[in-house]
Task: structure prediction
Amino acid sequence: MDAHVSTIVLVPLLAVGAALLTTAVGRFAKIPLVVFEIVLGLLLGPSVLGWIPETDALDMIANFGLAFLFFMAGNEIDFAAIGARHLRRASLSWVLSLVLAIVLATLIAGELIRGVYIGIALTSTALGTLMPVLRDAGELRTPFGRALTAVGAVGEFGPLLAISLFLSGRKPLAAALVLIGFAIIAGGAIWFASRGVHPRFHALVRATLHTSGQFAVRFVVLVIAALVGLSIAVGLDMLLGAFAAGVLCRILLAGAEPADAHHIESKLEAVAFGVLVPVFFINTGIGFDLQALVTDPRALILLPIFLVLLILVRGIPASWFSVPPGSTFRDRASFTLFSATGLPIIVAVTAIGVREHDLPVGTATALVGAGMLSVLLYPLIALTLRRRSSDGGVRPADPDAVPIEG
Result:
């Protein structure tokens, strides 16, 4: 079968198969969907069966899926509902994580530049990956879920800022000026969106909600493309633009009627988690260089070290600062594992490091492998611990939470 034809047929087949496996296995164990997507991609990719090759076209769709993943993360974060205290504590824990990670990574790698790459990667939390897991578990609106959302938001936004400041190839001052310029443009758009209810905009959204026009979805894609394009044009990581696009669209669409907002959210989830995001996770499995890992003894040693470091430098500080008051030991352990789950930022950071010849391929593969294992294992264990909490899931009211209707 032609390579392009096999990709066109097999990638959607894997997406469907992953959903079916999640449903079937879910009767016995709640395993996150991304686990099956990554594993199936690995099995059918060049590293094992070789049925699906790596192609530029698939990479392009996967990158757009990654952008949509970060867009959905930004779009689902309600900063007012999370509360300032959670965000402050999450920020403090991330700064501590960054310092610890760079110091330990530099000692392991033997070079500061490699330590910076590895350290930034280890401080990420895969909020876009965890949001569907938390939503399916009914945790998004609990104190536990709000605190974890704050950790995840900082754990994705913080590394993106660090990438832009230290890994963009510019001097820190120049990079900071570019970042400030991007923040002014994105912040100005968010400020404009927050002013008024924009009745004409929402009238157009409502008029095309059930027609082929689908203005809301088309507008969202345009905003993502515009901010991603802007971030790339000024030399920033595209994920920063995608995340900002999510925040912007959440504010702009907030003035819609509740029924309309529900329909829009459903459509965006369908596009993201039904079409594009699965391609990113499947492609992550397809592109994983298993041979480079198993043939490099140093990489094999580094993989479990990185997996443990995700807990030590990211999970434990996040849990120490941010876990809600009154949490049980199992809750704290669950929070630690959720916070230590990282993959998209790790993929982005290692890609930059390999491209700039600052990070050896074996080290990058070990980092990505650790990220994949964290996604495969940590949420599964964390969900099990959370459900077995001695208080039966009952939590005290979150003093920082803003009541959410609906």
Summary: The chain has a mean pLDDT of 82. The CA atoms of residues 126 and 375 lie 8 Å apart.
